[in-house]
Design a protein that fits this description.
By secondary structure, the protein is α+β, with helices and mostly antiparallel strands. It is built from 8 helices and 4 strands.
């Protein structure tokens, strides 16, 4: 009886294989180990059309599984982001103060651009969110009035036709009227390997270029920020704070 049942299953497996079913199809239908299925149907020859059909189906299954994995990963990432976001309940003025110093440190002081402190506070970025955060920092921590804030736009010379769109974009991002953006500087497009040291940013890569946020008559504030950054560095690295 057992032998009869096994032969019966084997004949079904062979018949399914002759009709072009894959090993996975047979396994899902009959719940038999794939190694057993392979040994049963190894002598079955498939037609060219059947082979092409199986190949196409394997490709589709692989693509579907890839998309499912991507979707699961995206959901996991979103879940982590939502969970971690809940840890930031409220940002105090002191925390905002430290964040602004860190931003300025990374953008100017760490890059060596802090040597021209006499030119005042200048923060440059193509990231609209960083620009917004720094403007918020100037207003709430630096207590800088909007009339003291100025802007310069830097874009690639290949984007001259988008000058109006660029001004509208940064006006929208910052919430300042277009009149605050009188200066647009067009930069030459350099190959990545040939960008001069004084042109460290490749302005042509960003659709709307870079926005430089400046503060009028702010050389003392720039020196103050540099001092704060130096004190933070000394404290975190365990050095004695200079007096």
């Amino acid at each position: 009886m057992v032998q009869y049942l096994e032969n019966y299953k084997k004949n079904i497996a062979i018949d399914m294989r002759k009709r072009g079913f894959s090993y996975s199809d047979i396994y899902n239908k009959m719940n038999i180990p794939k190694s057993t299925i392979v040994s049963w149907v190894k002598d079955v020859k498939l037609t060219k059309e059947q082979k092409e059909k199986l190949k196409k189906r394997r490709t589709e299954i692989a693509r579907t599984n890839f998309q499912k994995r991507n979707l699961r990963t995206a959901k996991l990432i979103e879940s982590i982001k939502l969970s971690s976001a809940q840890n930031i309940a409220k940002i105090s003025k002191r925390e905002l103060w430290l964040m602004g110093i860190a931003l300025y440190w990374k953008e100017r002081l760490a890059s060596g651009d802090g040597s021209d402190l006499k030119n005042g506070v200048r923060f440059t970025s193509s990231d609209p969110d960083l620009v917004k955060i720094f403007i918020k920092w100037l207003r709430e921590v630096g207590e800088i009035d909007d009339e003291e804030i100025k802007f310069d736009i830097f874009i690639g010379e290949d984007k001259k036709s988008k000058m109006d769109d660029t001004k509208n974009y940064w006006a929208y991002i910052t919430g300042f009227p277009r009149g605050y953006f009188p200066r647009v500087y067009f930069q030459k497009k350099y190959p990545v390997k040939k960008i001069p040291k004084n042109k460290a940013r490749n302005y042509s890569k960003s659709e709307f270029g870079f926005l430089r946020v400046g503060v009028r008559s702010s050389s003392m504030l720039a020196r103050q920020i540099a001092g704060w950054a130096e004190a933070i560095k000394d404290y975190l690295l365990g050095h004695e704070i200079k007096k």
